[in-house]
Amino acid sequence: MGDKGTAIAAWRRVPRSIWAIGFVSFFMDISSEMIHALLPLYMVGVLGTSTLAVGIIEGIAEATAAITKVFSGALSDWLGKRKMLMALGYGVAALTKPIFPLAPHVGFLVAARFVDRMGKGIRGAPRDALITDITPPDLRGAAFGLRQSLDTAGALLGPLLAILFMALFSENFTLVFWIAVVPAFLSAGLAIFAVEDPKHDGDQHKVRTPLSRKELAKLGATYWWVVIVGSAFTLARFSEAFLVLKAQDIGLSIALVPSIMVVMNVAYFLSAYPVGALSDRMNRLSLLITGLLLLLAADLVLAFASGLVGLVIGATLWGLHMGFTQGLLATLVADTAPPTLRGTAFGMFNLVTGVALLIASVIAGALWDSIGPTSTFIGGAIFTLLTLLGLLPLRHRIGMTHKNRK
């Protein structure tokens, strides 16, 4: 009862611009997930792309976003204009959406995916730094959890709408891709007109050379431990595209395959905000370790799932893992980064974890093509277990309780 009351009280205190940022994420994720839920099937089933190629494309696309985040984050520290860069990133992503229904062959889809992820990269670090700037320290977990929950609500509705429209329009991929354009432009409009930039005194949030060795050294040892932890988590978790392919592998129809993302995102949505609010009152790394245990269970269930029940259980566990980890990793970066280097800190974190995702997705695709789907999830379980064993000794080094945060 106490934890529930704490979560509700924190919800009411979250600044208005955090809600606006949350709905910006909500609409963009509806659009992105409508496309993302169908794209692996479209590429493999319609265009004849290999599963390994899907893994490589997904990994490189996310790595592209991560690399872009470094420079956009550093630029936001240099300019002190976080909202401007965030809005630019959402605008770029919105402009790529019409390319998906217009693409005549896979090359255009790959290019659109990369530019879309560049938009994600441009907005990501400035947005997270902006959330940190706006939010009081005792509400950071709740603020990041709220944004993650609204983001995930969009990611939940996206596949649901994809299923609905695929059924209504006789599995017409092109038409569904066109419908996905609308929420993307709503998102960009909200980013421009509904989010306010906090006012700072003088040059408080400007850094002359944020990517210099001198400035990076100011990030501190605890921050770099957070980067190591985030990288380990990402190596243990490959792209969700493989959940979609697993659903197809067990025999779900093309129209129903996106339902696996719906199941995952329901669990993600329901857990992200409560876990974020709870993390404002306890050790955050302990909650992250719980998230790893959930991922280990998800990998093992999905490795041996041969029917709908196993698939649903595995997707639910995967979604709970996401709810326990994604918002908290961002909150740990916010806790440990100096105020004048927050954009750079989020950018560097996303660069390193993006490279880790590239490695994980390529390995997952190679295992799937060479051995089979079971090996992909068994490999994930092994790496998750190794990551878990490596993180246990660190639980007192980072992830402080709320009493120690600044």
UniProtKB/TrEMBL annotation:
GO MF terms held by the record: transmembrane transporter activity
Transmembrane intervals: 87-112, 150-169, 175-195, 216-238, 250-273, 285-305, 311-334, 346-368, 374-394
Domain Major facilitator superfamily (MFS) profile: start-end pairs: 17-399
Keyword Membrane assigned: yes
Keyword tags: Membrane, Transmembrane, Transmembrane helix
Pfam families listed in its UniProt record: MFS_1
Nucleus as UniProt keyword: no
The protein's name in its UniProt record: MFS transporter
